[in-house]
Design brief:
Layout: E1 13-16, H1 22-32, E2 38-42, H2 43-49, H3 51-59, E3 63-70, H4 74-87, E4 91-95, H5 100-112, E5 118-122, H6 130-135, H7 142-155, E6 160-162, H8 168-175, E7 180-183, H9 202-207, E8 212-215, H10 217-220, H11 225-237
Helix pairs in contact: 1-3, 4-5, 7-8
The structure holds cytidine-5'-monophosphate.
Cytidine-5'-monophosphate (C5P) binds next to β8 and α10.
């Protein structure tokens, strides 16, 4: 059985370290490490600080989701996945739009990596509207594309997808209980939305089938970030997914 089913509530919480300095990232990790599952390092931080920040956070014993969304030819992406595997990250991602050969090559590279990181596909970016997809020659409602591409990722042996909490339920129905669903755009019930348009609470994301929630400013911008993380973990632990699959 997949380890997705036995995670403790706080282990489902991924904090986005959206900063550009390793020192700040390490400080946040130290502060929050007992209350979260993983930290997410994205393009801003990785481009600024490189593998050094990954090593520093690894040394604190906190797992990393390396959110670099690889999208290139199969050979190049497989090499990047192998390099990320050597860094010891627990989770990483590639664009589903890279195509079948790229997804398969990435999945094989992740599987052969000694640390076997969880490889996620990014389906349709939440910043894209139906209009922008049409301009790219991709027709149809976004939720349908998201589910279709999630299934494609699963067929190509990826372990899961990054998706909006609002699309988690149809993905869960289409891809079954052992396919990881990681959802950003999370806000506390009474919190600010910032620049996110389609938001969900940790409880509603979990109820819809999310295995992990990615939270940035709702924790790092809270008056008491530890209390905010604890409240979110408690909320995650208080609900059962509607599909009762994890
Ligand atoms: O501060 P906030 O909770 O909005 O941060 C969310 C994090 O998740 C950011 O790092 C953002 O880049 C990322 N993300 C997102 N929406 C996506 C994919 C990633 O908000 N569709």
């Amino acid at each position: 059985m997949s380890q997705l089913h036995s995670l403790r509530p706080h282990e489902r919480l991924i904090v986005a370290l959206d900063c550009s300095e390793a020192a700040a990232a390490v400080q946040w990790t130290r502060r929050l490490r007992d209350h979260i599952g993983l930290v997410k390092i994205g393009l801003e931080l990785f481009v600024a600080e490189g593998p050094r920040v990954v090593h520093e956070i690894n040394d604190l014993g906190v797992g990393i989701f390396l959110d670099l969304k690889f999208h290139d030819i199969p050979n190049t992406v497989a090499g990047a996945v192998r390099s990320a595997g050597r860094l010891g990250v627990k989770m990483l991602n590639v664009h589903a739009g890279g195509g079948v050969a790229m997804l398969q090559a990435a999945a094989l590279a992740a599987e052969e990596s000694p640390t076997q990181p969880l490889l996620l596909g990014v389906t349709v970016l939440t910043s894209l509207h139906e209009e922008s997809l049409r301009a790219l020659g991709i027709a149809g409602p976004i939720p349908e594309r998201v589910v279709e591409w999630a299934r494609l990722c699963q067929t190509c042996n990826l372990g899961g997808v990054v998706a909006s909490a609002l699309e988690a339920a149809p993905i869960r129905r289409a891809c079954g209980p052992d396919f990881a669903i990681v959802t950003p755009g999370i806000r506390a019930s009474q919190g600010a939305r910032h620049d996110q348009v389609r938001v969900a609470t940790p409880a509603s994301a979990r109820r819809n089938g999310a295995d992990y929630v990615v939270v940035g400013r709702a924790i790092t911008g809270a008056p008491d970030p530890v209390a905010a993380a604890q409240a979110m973990a408690e909320e995650l632990g208080g609900v059962t997914p509607e599909m009762a699959v994890s």
